[in-house]
């Protein structure tokens, strides 16, 4: 008797996730040249796709900074997905706040031939599980980037806010800088002002956005180590950072803040951050005029800044002065508390009623006890109908010395 041969079973190759290494940079560059799937969040950090030459040149320093706690420890936090020694994709992440409770997906790269959605999902879920200190994740996606939007929605990201990026041309900047801004209480920023800037940042955001970013006073302070590294970075990058805030003496609070990164050689555009108290929207023209006057001392370049959908006054003002919107993005967020529900699937159809109510059963059989009354409750007074049916009602006790009479007035 001959036995039928068993058909070979297909084994699904496993995808391995590991931290990035120097030898992976060439493969990432080849993957990008082959029109790989990529999604980027606007960020000032090193970009895994745009700054490959800088990463190659400073890889040793970046690796050294990742070995001990410092503000630039996660400057190049990236993971690689590979299968059979073939690179399938990469992901770059970074913390948003000092406490590292909120992280951002800076760049996601995947090979379409291997399934960009599957590779991106594996990389995202690895970050959700490996970075244990993260409680919330955010990502910023172009509104027109449907594949990236589908990838993040599939992995639990929900819309948080809509972002609009604006550019102000040099000619318009020159016109805005002609008038003197009315800012009598404009003050330079120092570490002693961190409490005021934290309060301003808190009041300028909706509660949900504030909870996602989870900023504290420490996020508005700069250490000596950060100041030294920032100075070195500005010297090599030919940039300069100028910041200030408007102080309200009556309320003893900061009502406006700006920070502008200037390009000293005119090789790139200027970038500005603007925060205004919702009750002091008249500060928009004044702060923008102040920034425009600062840019007049440098080679002419455009100024770029962002606005959100919960800041309609800023968008109205930028539209009124002739600023041009250049990009529309969607800010999305996801909580890590969903991963327990996703990793452990529970079949609700197979549950029995006894299994669900089993925890409600007592641990032992209850023993009945005796009921003891502390005093006798008064009985209700019966009416005549009950007395005719054989029930006798209790007559009130007679006073001493009184004599009872029947209904006819005769003595018994």
TrEMBL record:
Q: Origin organism of this chain?
A: Phormidium yuhuli AB48
Q: Which domain of life is it from?
A: Bacteria
The record places domain N-acetyltransferase at 15-175
Q: What is this protein called?
A: GNAT family N-acetyltransferase
Q: Does Transferase show up as a keyword for this record?
A: yes
Task: List keywords of the entry alphabetically.
Answer: Acyltransferase, Transferase
Q: Where is the composition biased (Polar residues)?
A: 399-412
- Name the InterPro entries for this protein: Acyl_CoA_acyltransferase, GNAT_dom
């Amino acid at each position: 008797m001959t036995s039928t041969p068993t058909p070979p079973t297909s084994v699904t190759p496993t995808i391995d996730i590991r931290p990035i290494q120097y030898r992976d940079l060439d493969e990432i560059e080849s993957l990008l040249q082959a029109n790989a799937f990529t999604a980027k969040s606007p960020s000032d950090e090193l970009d895994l796709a745009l700054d490959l030459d800088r990463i190659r040149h400073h890889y040793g320093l970046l690796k050294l900074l990742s070995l001990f706690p410092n503000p630039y420890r996660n400057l190049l936090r990236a993971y690689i997905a590979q299968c059979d020694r073939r690179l399938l994709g990469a992901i770059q992440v970074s913390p948003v706040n000092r406490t590292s409770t909120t992280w951002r997906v800076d760049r996601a790269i995947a090979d379409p031939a291997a399934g960009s959605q599957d590779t991106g999902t594996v990389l995202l879920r690895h970050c959700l599980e490996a970075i244990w200190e993260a409680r919330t994740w955010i990502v910023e996606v172009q509104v027109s980037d449907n594949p990236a939007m589908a990838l993040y929605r599939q992995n639990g990201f929900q819309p948080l806010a809509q972002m609009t990026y604006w550019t102000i041309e040099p000619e318009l900047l020159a016109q805005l800088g002609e008038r003197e801004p009315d800012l009598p209480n404009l003050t330079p920023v120092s570490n002693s002002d961190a409490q005021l800037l934290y309060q301003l940042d808190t009041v300028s955001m909706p509660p949900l956005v504030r909870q996602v970013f989870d900023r504290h006073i420490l996020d508005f302070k700069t250490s000596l180590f950060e100041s030294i590294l920032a100075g070195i970075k500005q010297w090599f990058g030919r940039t300069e950072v100028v910041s200030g805030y408007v102080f309200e003496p009556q309320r003893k609070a900061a009502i406006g803040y700006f920070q502008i990164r200037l390009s000293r050689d005119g090789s790139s555009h200027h970038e500005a951050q603007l925060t205004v108290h919702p009750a002091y929207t008249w500060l928009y023209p004044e702060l923008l005029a102040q920034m425009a006057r600062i840019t007049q001392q440098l080679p002419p370049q455009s100024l770029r800044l962002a606005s959100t959908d919960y800041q309609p006054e800023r968008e109205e003002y930028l539209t009124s002065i002739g600023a041009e919107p250049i990009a529309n993005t969607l800010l999305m967020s996801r909580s890590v508390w969903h991963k327990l529900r996703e990793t452990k699937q529970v079949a609700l159809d197979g549950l029995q009623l006894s299994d669900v109510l089993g925890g409600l059963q007592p641990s032992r059989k209850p023993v009945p006890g005796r009921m003891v009354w502390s005093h006798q409750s008064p009985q209700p007074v019966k009416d005549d109908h009950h007395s005719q049916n054989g029930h006798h009602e209790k007559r009130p006790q007679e006073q001493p010395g009184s004599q009872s009479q029947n209904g006819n007035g005769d003595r018994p």
